[in-house]
Amino acid sequence: MQQPRENEVSVLRYGHRPGRDDRMTTHVGLTARALGADQIIFPDNATQPAETVTDIVSRFGGPFDVQRTDTLNAIIREWSGTVVHLTMYGERVQDVTKKIRERCLHDHPLLIVIGGEKVPSDVYEWADWNVAVTNQPHSEVAGLAVFLDRLFMGKELEQEWADAEHVVIPQACGKRVVDAE
Amino acid sequence: MQQPRENEVSVLRYGHRPGRDDRMTTHVGLTARALGADQIIFPDNATQPAETVTDIVSRFGGPFDVQRTDTLNAIIREWSGTVVHLTMYGERVQDVTKKIRERCLHDHPLLIVIGGEKVPSDVYEWADWNVAVTNQPHSEVAGLAVFLDRLFMGKELEQEWADAEHVVIPQACGKRVVDAE
User: Fold this and answer.
1) C-beta atoms of A139 and B135 within 8 A
2) Which of A7, A20, A53, B143 could serve as A29's disulfide partner, Cβ 3.0–4.6 Å?
3) Fold topology of A9-179
């Protein structure tokens, strides 16, 4: 697998059940892309989500890398920078995001681990931070979205996309999509 | 259906296909609850998501109302306060959230419409605001999460829960769940 660049933010989806999890795993990947991450790392069996996210990149732009791997544990354990694991059992996002942001300035790249099915306790140990977006049960997609928006302090909403075929123009009412030049 | 209280924020899931959408619709409901909304309004056929969210309320606390209705269009059209429709085609969330927050002070309650399958153009017309959390395709759950976190300016993360059976205690590592007193 390609090594991450220094300032990169990668999202790793831990666990995937083909069929049952396809949509949720796809949404994790699309949310990572839309909200400023540079790369999604899927489990090797997440073929359909990887195809869908790759297709969105080709139509709506990048750069955004889509990877699949059968060595999720090794990637987390041997990550060269900071590892954040999002879990409802972790520390409160409002208490730790500033510290994470500061640490990533020195200890990048950042890997964000998103649980699907049951996450083994090792992952809690390997992570530098276990972070909860509320200590309530809700959605790994929602947790990832809020974490990224807070990590980047909204700057991710201003990013520009390269090599897009289509561009959506914000409208008060209705839909406007133009072909990129 | 119960009338919303004046200062309430309700989330309405527009459209649901039983089976195929169960998990995504459930995540919309759980995200609404966890991130500060007061009520979820599901389509009448969303029986399984309604059961799951109701179960979470009974175990992790409320108050949070779970409604099902076969009159989604009438609820949106005749809403007595402000209607926000989240869509990737809308105005940029970073440009309009402050205005929405101010308007809701005078023109509450707030209804947030979350599309599932194709949303008819009428909904764009009925809404006071069509709002995009990025103009990129990603996830209605992610969009709802970021919108609520920005609407409430993070205060939703501090809320306390009444009548919970279980309380998760934030931990740097591992899991700690205690029975509520």
Assistant:
1) no
2) A53
3) Alpha/beta knot (3.40.1280)
